[in-house]
Amino acid sequence: MFEVLVDHIEKKVHLTEPEKELIRPLFMARKLRKKQYLLQASEVCTHLTFVAKGLLRSYNVDDKGNEHINQFAWEGWWISDFYSFLTQEEALFNIDAMEETEVLMISRHDYEELTLKVPAMDRYFRILYQNSLVTKDRRLMSSTTHTAEEKYLQFAKRYAPILGRIPQHLIASYLGLAPETISRIRRKRMTKDAG
User: Using one digit for the tens of pLDDT, what is the confidence trace for 1-17?
Assistant: First the structure.
């Protein structure tokens, strides 16, 4: 499982063998069953989590009981309630497994130690945060300026590796659309592709 993390890191920065050995004991492995929580809203997020295998979702629930998907994370992705992780205040998001999942987790203390002792890891996380900001900016822009079909097509392109693993109603929640809208768009695309 640790090799999946190292491979992901080395796509962005180079690690020496001693650095890899320093990193290894800072991560704790954990397995989650389908629908098992990694974090519940109102708890404090104490770890950053790397997905080695499986699929997680981050979401909040509004006053009417409706779920609003914030993020999907699959193999090679990180997930947390980052605000809670940094401030040690209550989490706003729930994170649970959508399928059997294996993760590697690093505590806040070990994360700080890691970024101080291994400068390449500080750079690695900076790259991740920059990419995350760009993604969130594009998602915000898309939510206010694109049609439902454009939103879905962008999602399908970006999430192509896991599109078949995500139920339609959760895609709709992530995009802020009704599930019926997703069905209509898919039918339209199938008709267009067939014609």
Answer: 899 999 999 999 999 99
